[in-house]
Amino acid sequence: MPRVVLCVACVLMLGGGASAEIATVAKPIYHGILRVNPASGTIDRQTGSATIKVNHWALILDSEESDGIYPNLEPIIVAIGIEPPFSLDAGALRASHNGKTFSYRGKLKRGDRGISKMTIHQEADGSYAVRFMLMGVDLSSLIFNDPLCLPMAVIIGNDDGFSGVNVTTAPKYGTRVRIPSECDQVPVWPWT
Fold it and tell me: CA-CA to 19 of 20 to 30 Å: which in 45, 107, 132, 142?
């Protein structure tokens, strides 16, 4: 009898089981919102390879369907355009002592492709502040078509935030990349 009571108590503490499931693959089921703020970076006009630095975007989970995110336990993908996504394996981010901030710093060198750093912080309103730096982003089409509207997503386990982003150079056709705002001329969902 005591084991049954203990099991019931564990299920109740975990919120019923299904709502606390940790995803083992980054495959979005629950679609939230990625709120875009201005971001910047640089582009090598010879190769089209760019670095993008995002300081404070908001990942807003689907409040009715999401089972929550576990950035230190679930795989993460950052996808932009149609190129192969940038990914981090489950466990790459480390949780802070209070469990509300998760951080990663890679050891990438100039010319490498990947996520150089990432921080995810849970805000008081339940959203997540997301900061990251991507290296080796293929923006070669920006060399001839400026500005671009590209689909972008942050996927953590089975949750995502999706938005279109305006990408441009400043000055026009220069080496500084800017993401000044969101855009809406993108496919509904280009990643599966």
Answer: 132
CB 9 within 8 A of CB 3: no
Q: What sign results for the dihedral spanned by CA atoms 184, 136, 95, 119?
A: negative
pLDDT digit string, tens, across residues 52-92: 999 999 999 998 889 899 999 999 999 998 889 999 999 99
What sign does the dihedral 106-108-114-119 (CA atoms) show? positive
Distance CA 168, CA 179 (A): 7
Estimate to the nearest angstrom the gap between the alpha carbon of 97 and the chain centroid.
22
How far apart are the C-alpha atoms of 147 and 142, rounded to whole Å?
7
Measured between alpha carbons, how far is 77 from 159 in angstroms, rounded to an integer?
Answer: 10
- Report the predicted TM-score, pTM, of the whole model to 2 decimal places: 0.85
